[in-house]
Batch of 2 targets.
Target 1
Amino acid sequence: MTGHSDAPPRPLTARRAAALAGRCRVPGDKSISHRALIFGLLAVGETNVTGLLEGEDVLRTADAARALGAQVERLGDGVWRVHGVGVGGLREPTGPLDFGNAGTGSRLMMGVIGGHPIKATIDGDASLRKRPMRRILDPLAKMGVQVLAEAEGGRCPITIRGSDDPNPITYTTPVASAQIKSAILFAALNAPGVTTVIENEASRDHTEKMLAYFGADITVVPEGTHGRRISLRGRPELKPMPIVVPADPSSAAFPLVAALLVPGSDVTIEGVMLNPLRTGLLTTLLEMGAKIDITHRRIEGGEEVGDLRVKASSLKGVDVPAARAPSMIDEYPILAVAAAFAQGETRMRGLSELRVKESDRLQAVADGLAANGVTYRIEGDDLIVTGGAVKGGGTVKTHLDHRIAMSFLVMGLASDNPVSVDDETMIATSFPQFRPLMAALGADFA
Ligand code: S3P
C-alpha cells in the first residue's frame, strides 16, 4: 500500500521549472477530516461528510472507527457517510488498531477509547512508533485510563483500557498541542461533570468548534495573553451534523511557496481555510514580502476560507516569533525552503516541538538544507537560515515524513541544480494528489 512504511521507497527529483500558472484546489484539511470521522463515530445516527481528505492517515482513522463499531462508507469523491454508535456506545476492537503514520488519528482515538470501558492496542509505522505518547497517556491516566502495555518510553504499540466512568479533570497542557487537548476532550465526553483544559498558547481549535456544532456544552474563554481555558460538560448526546471539510492550509503551503519561488509564476489556490490558528505561515510570508492576495473570503463548513492568488516574489528574511509556532507548526519545513531563497537571515524561534513530528523535523530540515548548499545554524530551539541563490544538487532523506518530501521537492523547482528526495511514498498520507496537482501548474517531477 502506498504511504506505508513497508512499501519500497520511491525516489523523486524536482528540476527548475518554468513559470507556474493556473488555479488549483488542494484536498480537505487533515485535522478536520480525522475529526469528522471521530465525530461521526461518537454521534448517534448518520453523519455525512463532504470534502474528506482521502489520504492514508485519514483512511486509517476510518478503519479504526469501523473497528470501534461505526459503519463508515465512501459514497463518492470525498463524500462519506458514518453511522455512529454514540458516546458510551463503542465496541471493543478485535485486533490492534494500526494508525500507520498518523499521530493525530492515534492520539485522538486514544482519548475516545479512554472514555469507554474497552481495551485496545494502538500501533503504527516506524515513524509513529518513535513518537512520544506519554503526553496523552498522562492526562488520560488521571481520568482513570489504565495503560496495560507500552513500548519503552511510552511509545506504540500501546494497550490501554478505558474507563466507563472517567474522572472529569482540570489539566494544563505542558506544550501547545491540539492533540493533547483533543484527546482529553474526547475522553471527557463520557465523564460525569465538567472537564477543563487550559492551554497557555492556543492551539488549533477544530475539536472545540466541532463539539459545539454537534451540540455539546462547551465554553472557551481567553487565558492569559495567548491562551485559552476550555470547559466541556460530559455525557451529551451528540447529534449528527453535515460536515464540509475546507481545503487544508498546510497542503496549500506547497503550491503557494512554489509559486512564490519560481520566477514569473501566477497561481490561485481556491477555498483555503483561514482559521486564525492555522495562518501563521501566511502572516510570515506576507512579512517576507510575498505577493499574496486573499479574495472571495467566505464561510465553508463553519470556517472562513478564501482564494489565494500568489505571484512570484522576491522575499526578505524575517524573525519569526516563538508565539507564532502553534499556528504554523506543520509549515516550518516549507518556510525553511522559502527562507533559503530569501535575501538575508530568517530566524525561526521556539521549534522544540518539531523534534517530535513525523520525523525529527528540525534535524531533517537542517540536513536537507546542508545537502543543497544552504547555510543555516541551530541555536537552542531556533533555526536560522541564510538565504540567497540555492545551489541544490542534493538528495534529501525524508525519514517517513511527507512534509519533508514535499518541501524539498518545492526547493528543486527553483534551485540551480535538481533536488531529489529518497522517498515520495509518504506524500500519500496527507496529499495524494500532490504530483498531478503540481504537474497541472507546470511543475513536473520525475
Ligand atoms: C494536529 C495538531 C498538531 C499538528 C498535526 C495535526 C491536530 O500536532 O502538528 O499535524 O489535528 O490536532 P500537535 O497537537 O502535537 O502540535
Target 2
Amino acid sequence: MKIYLDSANLEDVSRALESGRIDGVTTNPSIIAREGRPFKACIEDILRMGPHLTVLAEVVSKSAAAMEAEARDLASLSAAIVIKLPCTAEGIAAARKLSGSGIRTTVTLVFSLNQAIAAACAGADFVAPFVGRLDDIDSDGIGLVRSIKETLVAHSMKTQVIAASVRSPFSVSRLFIAGADIVTLPYKLLGQMIQHPLTDQGMAAFERDWVKVPD
Ligand code: G3P
C-alpha cells in the first residue's frame, strides 16, 4: 500500500514530506493551475524537495503524437516522473507507444471498468479511477476500484490502481480494502486519516499518569 499527495502546493508537499507518510505526488492541469506558476517549475521543485518521490505529471496535448512528444520531454526531467494521459482514444494510443520505451504511464480520468481494461491492455503502468466524482453522481467509486483490481489480478496484468479524487477518510480505508495499490489524497486528508478521539484521550491519560511516576 502506498499513499501519495494530490497537490502541487509546495507547502503541502513540504508538510507531507515531514510527516514521512507519502511515496509520491500526483498533479493534473487543475492542480498546477491553482499554483499560478509555470508547469515545469512546479514539477522540478517537487522533484528537488523529495528525491525519493514518484511524481505524476499530466500531458495537455490533444493528439497521440503530440502527447507522446510532450511525455518524452517531461520524462526527461527525471526517472521519477510518471506521465499521466487522459483516458481518451488518443491518450490510450500514446500510452501504448510510451509503454514500450521505458516511460511509465498512468491513464487518468477513468470512470468505468472498460476504460481501465483498455488502459491495462495498452500497457499502462497505472490506472487512476476518480472515486469522488463518481460518488458525486450517485455512482459507486469504491465498487469500481474493487472491480478494476479484481479484473487486473484475474488476468495477471501488471497495471496498478491509483485511486484519485478521494474526499473522505472513510473512503481511504475502504479503497485499500477494495484493493487500491495507491491512494492519492489532498493534504487535509493525510491528517484526518490518523485522527481518533480515543488516541487523544489515551495520550491525555498517559500524560496525567506519568507525572505520578516517582523519579
Ligand atoms: O487526483 C484527481 C483529483 O485531483 C481530482 O479530484 O476532487 O477534483 O475530483 P477532484
